[in-house]
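B., you asked whether I could sanity-check this one before it goes into the benchmark set. Here's the sequence:
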Amino acid sequence: MKKYIFLSLFYFTANLAFSQARMVMNNNANLVINSSAFVVVDNSNSNAITLTGTGGGNIISEGENNRVRWRMGTSTGTYVVPFSKGSSKIPLSMNIGTAGVGNGYYDFSTYGTSTWNNLLEKPSMVTHMGQFNAPGAINHSEKAIDRFWLMNPGIYTTIPTSSFIFTYLDAEHTAPGNTITESDLGAQRFNTTTNVWGDMMPIGTLNTTNNTVSIPFMTPANFFAAWTLTQVGDPLSVELISFTANCVDQHVKLKWKTGSEQNSSHFQILQSSNMIDWEEIAEIPSHGNSSTSNTYEFQPENEIRATHYFQLVEHAMDETSKLLSTVSTTCEFTDNFDVSLYPNPNQGSFKIQVQSNEKMEQTLVQLFDLTGRILKTEVWTIEPGISEFSLSDLNLQAGSYVIKIDAKQKQAQVIRFVVN
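And here's what the prediction gave me:
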């Protein structure tokens, strides 16, 4: 039987008051939620939970179904749930930039796991603790901190566009069994549509002083409820220089180039027409161990007459896998151009090389993060032959990014790269 606490009553303790659907927590008051109970904040204002006095207050969830249900409706602003564990404060902040449609709510909860092996205590909506290949994914719990956050919207016709700040405890990344470098932490969510973590690499701005990871605004289409913090800088066993897709007589020609390979087993090619449903179309053996550059090519048999997306996944000999890059192409035009980006990974400075058989003026170049936010826009003139452009001092945080090069009357080229 579900239990609810509705904050529409008038109730006092020494340090905790519920009044007119507003909760005031004073002088380090504690509110413990257990046995799958709800605390319902039936007030859309961002100050519906107010902290006062010394220490404010603490909401202790420590369970997937021990939830704070906050009815934001169509309001905007910054909503802070003052989660705590013991004497440690781990608040969760949600900043609504674009209001949702409908009188909706979010259910918030968070809990830490008892060991490094999060697979044993994962949220009910999560099927594995690997990047890809569910349900047979390799367990990589050692690369995730020992805590999950659940932010589950309800009733909305369209959920809000929001950013979030997660707060973690040092003990949750230093626990025996974890192999995490704190300076490499980023936020990652589980895609319940495709049952993968790896369609979005870890993102966010890390503050190791405050123990927070702040992520940018998430579009409704890219938001899912279950989150954790994982290792951003986990070294790839393959140094990818470029991955491109070009049309040749209505057939896609995929080409990629590596700078080095360590303990690599093979490459997997995935294809999608909508960036949601992916299917494997090829497995390509790699060179295993190589300190020199290697070039690979693959051409699917089927003709392509619309926009398609391709992912390059590298599989290591220890059975781990990593998404290296995503590209797209539209086989509607006969003229093509090739694009490569190097080095990849990099530290926020890199070069882009474009090969074209004709001059292309007013070529739109855009830099995106994985939430779709445009970080930089330029317009280039590409000369016949090989043109090289440099981008530097971009002040990018560690994580994955996308460069899109869109020449008029050509198919756009998309390259994904990693900043260490």
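One thing to flag: The chain has a mean pLDDT of 83. Otherwise nothing jumped out at me.
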